[in-house]
Amino acid sequence: MPAEPTGGARTHRLRVTEVIVENADTHSLVLQAPPDATDRFGYRPGQFLTLKLPGTDGGWAARCYSLSSSPHTGEPLKITVKRVIGGRCSNWVCDEVRAGDEIEALPPAGTFTPDSLDTDLLLVAGGSGITPVLSIAKSALSQGTGKVALLYANRDDSSVVFRDELWGLTEAYPERLVVIHWLELLLGLPGVDRLAAVLAPYADRDAYVCGPGPMMDVTEQALRSLGTPARRIHRERFFSLSGDVFDVPAPSAPVAGTDEVSGSVRVELDDETHTVPWPSATPLLDALLAGGVDAPFSCREGSCAACTCRVVSGEVKLIRNEVLDEQDLADGYILACQAVPLTERVEVTYS
């Protein structure tokens, strides 16, 4: 299999132990971490892995795929990949990967995960958006005490992924799980009013929504019309990475338009404290990695929130932000991959 180790401290070679054909367009890969990295691949329900895959012109590409397994059921690590028309990486995974192959990956990342598994949840998925949603559902049912309502939208009956697994969950948890299938071939595209009517009994729950953008927009509008506060509606965004996130960079050149500041950052991570130089206008993540701090990251493009941390003192500026809302920013949360310093000394924490 064409995969070369980069030597990055945070990457590991995962062995494919099984390939599961879920349907004509979707394959699941059962993965095994090396013995010395098992603890690095502990994860929370709803998180994803970033894989290094063959790209164009003999190069490499990074792609993020959600985990469909649950960390609470004893099942092995498993991601699920759906073909994308013209998508080189997704089609390569579905066509070429076999049991015994190895794939280089970053540890699990992502913030699309419940704070508690003991509260009642509303899960809404469209198409391949079922992948992280299934992980959350299995975790809540096996480990938690709350009830789960899952609305799953697909084009038609043949498009439904994890049909047998969902049926098995409804059989195992008849008093706690409700699964509602929305098939466009029969019901048409979900609109705000019709969707609100279906979701009304569950509007007081924390909602986790994953799927195509228009479907998530309609779902959020429906829930807001029912009075669900924005803070209780959580969306997972699918995105493609434009660069190679696996190489550890040297401190970058100053970003145009950013004040010239050269100082240091004190960071608390995994119950340890580090102080490293923070060159002027260098993104915080780059400074931490160059300083030997094993800081979490995934996309390095301001799109996934895997590198989120909180400013304790000092000031920073975000070059780009697609995931943190106004309340997050007001609470001091930043994206390490997009933060540059505005003061000589800054202190941040990942706790």
UniProtKB/TrEMBL annotation:
The keyword Cytoplasm appears for this protein: no
2Fe-2S ferredoxin-type domain boundaries: 263-351
Keywords from the UniProt entry: 2Fe-2S, FAD, Flavoprotein, Iron, Iron-sulfur, Metal-binding, Oxidoreductase
Keyword hit for Acetylation: no
InterPro entries: 2Fe-2S_ferredoxin-like_sf, 2Fe-2S_ferredoxin-type, 2Fe2S_fd_BS, Beta-grasp_dom_sf, Cbr1-like_FAD-bd_dom, FAD-bd_FR_type, Flavoprot_Pyr_Nucl_cyt_Rdtase, FNR_nucleotide-bd
Cofactor (UniProt): FAD
FAD-binding FR-type domain mapped to chain residues: 9-115
Record-linked PROSITE patterns: 2FE2S_FER_1 (PS00197), 2FE2S_FER_2 (PS51085), FAD_FR (PS51384)
Example GO molecular function: 2 iron, 2 sulfur cluster binding
Domain of life (superkingdom): Bacteria
Cross-referenced PANTHER family: 1,2-PHENYLACETYL-COA EPOXIDASE, SUBUNIT E, NADH OXIDOREDUCTASE HCR
Protein name per the record: 2Fe-2S iron-sulfur cluster binding domain-containing protein
